[in-house]
């Protein structure tokens, strides 16, 4: 595909950057000065633009309010000691966005619109990239239906946006999770493998119920039997039994996480024994009981690795051992060091923007 | 709950009603002059308002664009020959809206806010109710997350809206459906029983694939085995085998349709043999082959009854007989006559508004 049109840039008249305490950032609460926007109309993507971050005006009958056509991505930008700016495997997010788009009957965004929009916006906003430990510029590409009407059918117009939020860590501290026995996040033949808005809304209530019982997150299980673990909240799940690192294969119910596949590659590179296969809850319980369950962690862009300290199942709680050196911490450090240009990147994942 | 606050009414300065061809209406494409709006903030529903139908202004980080917190209802208002205005079982929609709200971790709307808002708006917009055969004022209550942030968690603010669209028939003519073998609309333990936006977005792509093969709609099957029929597009499904009318029990995967339960009641009242039980695809095929399959129809507010003329399954097409008198047409007529105040309503379903 060719990038035939220049991006039109409208600069903000003043910056909000001086109001931001970059050493004390929450996750995804503050937004940078500009955003990238491109509208889809008449079967074509229109003029791509970078404009000041500002509200959208939408008809009450816009399909985003009624029929859930909304997809998104999550990625990060990093700045090294020299001030150079990097992305991490951005084409994977672009490709996954288009996988999501297809499943939700939304138009695919041309790769050059996505990548050039992202890079140009980053060049303009590079001072918004925090450098404190655990912080990064969180990048949110998203697309939603703007076309309107109450007929339950795909919209004819869409908006694609990239917005930035300088962010601190997603979770702070170790988490305590509940293995879900009743609710599910995805159906066979459903949209679980897509980053579709509706998948997240469906998780909130079961997560709320888990929180009321003292857990931070839910471990999702398959919706047919609830016997197999699938994801950890909005992260992929890893299990360490003795010295083997296990994770579940991706499927139509499970998101193909960039962090997950990066961890698999790094683990292999470091000589850690890895198995990608279905994991029964019963196997976890058995391993917890016989002392071979060493670690459990979630993996995703927001938290990178989120170590789990205990899990609940059928009214019983199982503690994970407190190890000094965890696979989780080691893998997180290696990924983060690659992302922030502190070490060599033998995998070709880092993309220098400027 | 008490209705403590008056509705604040801001009238439109002029009406669009004279531009509308009421004898030639599409479904859900034209909107009346006013809408009912109520915002949820700080843990409370705020001042309910009736305002001119107009766009909403929303932050790019508003959670509706990212995490799919959106629910809706669909109902209709009718005008009889004397100009009186009626609703049909409106409390059922209100209750179902709150069932949806709970599952999506959204605030429930007080019944009096819903009902009074709806009735007051109807009084103002009563001239927008079409009276042509097959037409009605389609009513769309909906709620979505306005609170913002990129953290995957429920929003703290929401907007509840009721908008009106004078509408003609949803489907025109008989439909040809495909029994789905691969895709699904709902998971066990998922949100299928809620009128959540995300459920509809997930249906569009499989429906598009079915359309490419010459079908109008998809018959959804259970996601575990695809052996049981569940819904007909965005309608509940009815099957007539010989002289027995069958429908599937509602479940966590199936919407508890107002039309479905009204049809069950009327069928019973008319002495039609009714069975509510699971229905295997294999049973449909067998009945089609041995000539006992008489009718197949979808039931929902938009189309009331949508008669199916043929269905496809595993590459084969099965035709339904062309009957002169169908249960579908008879039940549709009785419901519609009750809705439009043409006949007695022994069930107490009709609610006179003004
Ligand atoms: C459901 C779900 N699983 C897994 C992930 C992890 O994917 P990634 O590593 O690409 O961020 C995400 C996103 O963060 C997610 O939303
Ligand atoms: C999935 C689904 N099933 C069934 C129905 C029928 O419900 P009702 O008769 O209340 O309109 C609807 C809504 O129209 C629906 O969206």
UniProtKB/TrEMBL annotation, chains A, B:
SUPFAM superfamilies: D-aminoacid aminotransferase-like PLP-dependent enzymes. Keywords: Amino-acid biosynthesis, Aminotransferase, Branched-chain amino acid biosynthesis, Pyridoxal phosphate, Transferase. Its cofactor is pyridoxal 5'-phosphate. It comes from the Bacteria. Pathway: Amino-acid biosynthesis; L-leucine biosynthesis; L-leucine from 3-methyl-2-oxobutanoate: step 4/4; Amino-acid biosynthesis; L-valine biosynthesis; L-valine from pyruvate: step 4/4; Amino-acid biosynthesis; L-isoleucine biosynthesis; L-isoleucine from 2-oxobutanoate: step 4/4. GO terms for molecular function: branched-chain-amino-acid transaminase activity. It catalyses: L-valine + 2-oxoglutarate = 3-methyl-2-oxobutanoate + L-glutamate; L-isoleucine + 2-oxoglutarate = (S)-3-methyl-2-oxopentanoate + L-glutamate; L-leucine + 2-oxoglutarate = 4-methyl-2-oxopentanoate + L-glutamate. It holds the Pfam family Aminotran_4. Its EC number is 2.6.1.42. The keyword Transferase applies. Belongs to the class-IV pyridoxal-phosphate-dependent aminotransferase family. PANTHER family: BRANCHED-CHAIN-AMINO-ACID AMINOTRANSFERASE, SUBGROUP IIII AMINOTRANSFERASE. Acts on leucine, isoleucine and valine. NCBIfam families: ilvE_II (TIGR01123), PRK13357.1 (NF009897). This is Branched-chain-amino-acid aminotransferase.
């Amino acid at each position: 595909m060719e990038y035939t049109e220049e991006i039109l840039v409208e600069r903000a008249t003043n910056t909000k950057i001086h109001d931001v305490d970059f050493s004390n950032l929450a996750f995804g609460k503050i937004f940078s000065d500009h955003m990238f926007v491109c509208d889809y109309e008449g079967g074509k993507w229109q003029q791509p633009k970078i404009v000041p971050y500002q509200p959208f005006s939408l008809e009450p009958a816009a399909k985003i309010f009624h029929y859930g056509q909304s997809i998104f991505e999550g990625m990060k930008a990093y700045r090294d000691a020299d001030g150079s700016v990097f992305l991490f495997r951005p084409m994977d997010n672009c490709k996954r966005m288009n996988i999501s788009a297809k499943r939700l009957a939304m138009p695919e965004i041309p790769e050059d619109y996505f990548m050039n929009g992202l890079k140009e916006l980053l060049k303009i906003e590079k001072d918004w990239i925090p450098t404190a430990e655990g912080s990064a510029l969180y990048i949110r590409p998203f697309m939603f239906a703007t076309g309107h009407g109450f007929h339950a059918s795909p919209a004819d117009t869409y908006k694609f946006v990239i917005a930035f939020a300088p962010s601190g860590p997603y979770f702070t501290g170790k988490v305590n999770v509940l293995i879900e026995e009743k609710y599910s996040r995805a159906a066979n033949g459903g949209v679980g493998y897509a980053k579709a808005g509706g998948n997240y809304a469906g998780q909130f209530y079961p997560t709320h119920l888990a929180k009321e019982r003292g857990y931070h997150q839910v471990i999702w299980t398959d919706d047919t039997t609830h016997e197999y673990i699938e994801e950890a909240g909005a992260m992929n799940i890893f299990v360490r039994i003795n010295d083997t690192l296990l994770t579940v294969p991706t499927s139509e119910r499970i998101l193909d996480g960039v962090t997950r596949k990066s961890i698999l590659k790094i683990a292999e590179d470091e000589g850690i024994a890895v198995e990608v296969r279905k994991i029964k809850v019963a196997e976890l319980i058995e391993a917890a009981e016989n002392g071979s369950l060493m670690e459990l962690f979630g993996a995703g862009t927001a938290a990178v690795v989120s170590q789990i300290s205990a899990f609940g199942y059928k009214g019983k709680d199982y503690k994970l051992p407190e190890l000094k050196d965890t696979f989780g911490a080691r893998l997180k450090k290696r990924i983060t060091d690659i992302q922030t240009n502190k070490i060599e990147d033998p995998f070709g994942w880092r993309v220098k923007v400027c």
